[in-house]
Amino acid sequence: MQTTTRITAAALLTMASASLPTVALGVATIPEDEVFAREARREVIHIRIQEGCDLAATDRVRVEIPDGVLAVIPAAVPGWAVTTDVVETEPYELFGQRRNDRVATVEWSGGPLPAEEFQDFGFAAVFTEPTDELAIPVTQGCGTVEQAWVEVPEESEDRSDLQFPAPVVSVVEPPDTDIDGLQRDLAELGSDLDDLRTQLDGLRLGEIPGDRLRERIGDLDRRLSEVEKDVKKERAPEPS
C-alpha cells in the first residue's frame, strides 16, 4: 500500500546541472559534513540546487529517503509546494508511538529556480544507523528534462569517477556528553555571575575588592562561555 500526503515545511540539500561533462565536479552535495545517529531525535540536512539543466530553470526536486531514515519532516520553501510518499514498513517505535510506515520520497515543485541562481531544499529526520557515507539520491527536473543524481561508486571506484554521484552525508555516533550536567553547570554559573555583578555594582571602581570581583567575574564568564558552547553543540534546537 502506498499513500501520498501533501505538506508544507522546510529543508536543505544540493544539486546541479544536467549538462555536466563526464567527470563529476562535486556540485551535487550535502553541505553538512555529518549528522548524529540519535534515538528519537531529528537531525537536519540540506541539498542545494545551484545550477539548472543546461540553461533551463529547475521546477522539481525529488529526494529519495534511504531505509533507516525515519520521521522525515520537509521544510517549507517559499514559492514551492512539497509532497511526500509514505510506504509501509515493519513495525517500529519512535517518539513513544508504534509505527509501520515511513516517508520514502519528498518532492518540491514550483519556483521556477533560474539556472544562474541557487536554492536550498532539505528535511529533518531521525538517522538510525551510523555509516561513513549515506547516499541520498536526488532527481532534478527542468520542464521536460530530468537529471538523476543517484550514482554510488563501486568498490573499485571513487566518487570523482562518477558522472552524476548521489549526495552523501556521514552519520556518526553522538558524543558521550552529559547534557543534563552541562545545563546544571550553566544555570549555576549564570546565578553566580548575577550575584557577583550585583556586588560589584555596589563597589566604587578602583577598590581592591572590586578588582578581585572583576577578576572572578572574568573567570566565570569564560567558564560560562565554554559550557554554553558545549550545550549548543550537543543539543541544537530540533524542528517540530
Structural write-up:
The chain is α+β, with helices and mostly antiparallel strands and 240 residues long. It has 2 domains: 2-172, Immunoglobulin-like (Sandwich), CATH 2.60.40; 179-234. It contains 2 helices and 12 strands. The chain has helices spanning 179-201, 208-234; strands spanning 2-7, 34-36, 43-49, 58-64, 69-74, 80-94, 97-113, 119-127, 131-135, 138-142, 145-149, 168-172. A 6-stranded antiparallel β-sheet has the order 1-6-7-4-10-11, with no helix packed on it. A 3-stranded mixed β-sheet has the order 2-12-9, with no helix packed on it. It has a 3-stranded antiparallel β-sheet with strand order 3-8-5, with no helix packed on it. A hairpin with a 2-residue loop joins strand 6 and strand 7. The protein is elongated, with a radius of gyration of 24 Å. The chain starts with a strand and ends in a 6-residue tail after the last helix. 28% of the residues are buried. The model is unreliable at 1-27 (pLDDT under 50).
Question: SSE layout and pairings?
Answer:
Elements: E1 2-7, E2 34-36, E3 43-49, E4 58-64, E5 69-74, E6 80-94, E7 97-113, E8 119-127, E9 131-135, E10 138-142, E11 145-149, E12 168-172, H1 179-201, H2 208-234
Parallel strand pairs: 2-12
Antiparallel strand pairs: 1-6, 3-8, 4-7, 4-10, 5-8, 6-7, 9-12, 10-11
